[in-house]
TrEMBL record:
Pfam families: Transket_pyr (PF02779), Transketolase_C (PF02780). The pyruvate dehydrogenase complex catalyzes the overall conversion of pyruvate to acetyl-CoA and CO2. Its cofactor is thiamine diphosphate. This is Pyruvate dehydrogenase E1 component subunit beta. It comes from the Eukaryota. GO terms for biological process: glucose metabolic process; pyruvate decarboxylation to acetyl-CoA. It catalyses: N(6)-[(R)-lipoyl]-L-lysyl-[protein] + pyruvate + H(+) = N(6)-[(R)-S(8)-acetyldihydrolipoyl]-L-lysyl-[protein] + CO2. It comes from Esox lucius. The keyword Oxidoreductase applies. Its EC number is 1.2.4.1. Heterotetramer of two PDHA1 and two PDHB subunits. The heterotetramer interacts with DLAT, and is part of the multimeric pyruvate dehydrogenase complex that contains multiple copies of pyruvate dehydrogenase (E1), dihydrolipoamide acetyltransferase (DLAT, E2) and lipoamide dehydrogenase (DLD, E3). These subunits are bound to an inner core composed of about 48 DLAT and 12 PDHX molecules. Interacts with DLAT. Residues 33-208 form the Transketolase-like pyrimidine-binding domain.
Amino acid sequence: MASLRSFLRSGKNAVSVVLRREFSKTSPAAVQVNVRDALNQAMDEELERDERVFLLGEEVAQYDGAYKVSRGLWKKYGDKRIIDTPITEMGFAGIAVGAAFAGLRPICEFMTWNFSMQAIDQVINSAAKTYYMSAGFQTVPIVFRGPNGSSAGVAAQHSQCFAAWYGHCPGLKVVSPWNSEDARGLLKAAIRDDNPVVFLENEMMYGVPFELSEEMMHKDFVIPIGKAKVERQGTHITLVSHSRCVGFCLDAAAVLAKEGVECEVVNLRTIRPLDVDTIEASVMKTGNLVTVEGGWPQYGVGAEICARIMEVNIGPSLYRFQAQRSTTWMLLQ
């Protein structure tokens, strides 16, 4: 009524006021989504999109997953799409690989990647090498996923990072997400890929929330596998990392910025194929490189990155930092 009385008094001016109120052009606010829910949303949307997709693993169905990543999926899709398995990684990984050979698109969850050692013959000799040796003729559209790397109080047998292990093997794509954007976009891309994909999550990141834009929440939002992302621009030092250690790099960059040192932080996102071009471009700008990871130093992801950068004759100062031991190795000065 107030708008109508204003219109009667002032004519066109009142119309413009009403239009401004009704047709706001303000962009919708980003929503907070933790990594666990981002993974859950990605699987839910892909299960709905493609009836060939199914999830199997220990406690993924009625218990909603050991880490609740598959929460609610069994109630929505039932026993044929969300399948609880016996505690035998070799057995259910083999079933998943066979299903991929037959044209289905399984998501095979390991309760932790340390247990994938029981199934490494299926992951490497069956999934990776079949697709590789057939030159792509026999597709193997399977995603092996689960928590990777060190957690809290789980001892050495449950703390290994398998990025370098599986990144070594032809025929596999190896993905290592950091935040909710990575988790959501990369898992959807992995499920749609015809290659076998190793998807290395981090248990300590599951409950960490990140902002997701409206674009990132779209059902067809995917992140290309094999493309790194510069999370922070800098001019003095390049920090290259993946998974949880990306957050450590951003924290370190914030501290160093107060001392006048501007770090550029590169989030690898993918271990294989490795986005050397993005790393090289950053090091060309900064002249210095530090790699940060939670894996073992010998033959590690950081060692591979340092070797690749040396091959392009940039001649920077190279360091490799292993976050688990908080120790730095100087490779070249």
